[in-house]
């Protein structure tokens, strides 16, 4: 897929990025986007991805490309 991105040195799909943020597999994920913000831990680029951890929930997750920092809009 064209929208795979490098995160912590690994190529990840939107589904894999959402899994890294959520800590478990998700049902569905949208395309990865740049979040236009800096990581508060290391100043690296932050990516965002919208995903569905369950059928009733939609979450926007944020993940630094360079370190383990992650967050969601919950
Ligand atoms: Zn970082």
Structure description:
By secondary structure, the protein is mainly beta. It has one domain. Helices cover 12% and strands 47% of the residues. It has 1 helix and 7 strands; from the N terminus they run ββαβββββ. It has one helix at residues 14-22, and strands spanning 5-7, 10-12, 28-29, 33-38, 45-54, 57-64, 70-72. Strands 3, 4, 5, 6 and 7 form a 5-stranded antiparallel β-sheet that branches. It has a two-stranded antiparallel ribbon with strand order 1-2. A hairpin with a 5-residue loop joins strand 6 (57-64) and strand 7. It is globular and about 35 Å long. The mean pLDDT is 96. Zinc ion (ZN) binds at residues 39, 41-42, 44, 64, 66-67, 69.
SSE blueprint and pairings:
Elements: E1 5-7, E2 10-12, H1 14-22, E3 28-29, E4 33-38, E5 45-54, E6 57-64, E7 70-72
Antiparallel strand pairs: 1-2, 3-5, 4-5, 5-6, 6-7
The protein binds zinc ion.
Protein name: Small CPxCG-related zinc finger protein
InterPro entries: DUF5795 (IPR043813)
Organism: Natronomonas salsuginis
Alpha carbon gap, first and last residue: 28 Å
H-E string: EEHEEEEE
> Main β-sheet, in a few words?
5 strands, antiparallel
Q: How many distinct folded domains?
A: 1
Give the radius of gyration: 11 Å
Note the beta-strand portion.
Answer: over 45%
Tell me roughly what share of residues is in helical segments.
10-25%
Pfam families: DUF5795
InterPro entries: DUF5795 (IPR043813)
Protein name: Small CPxCG-related zinc finger protein
Organism: Natronomonas salsuginis
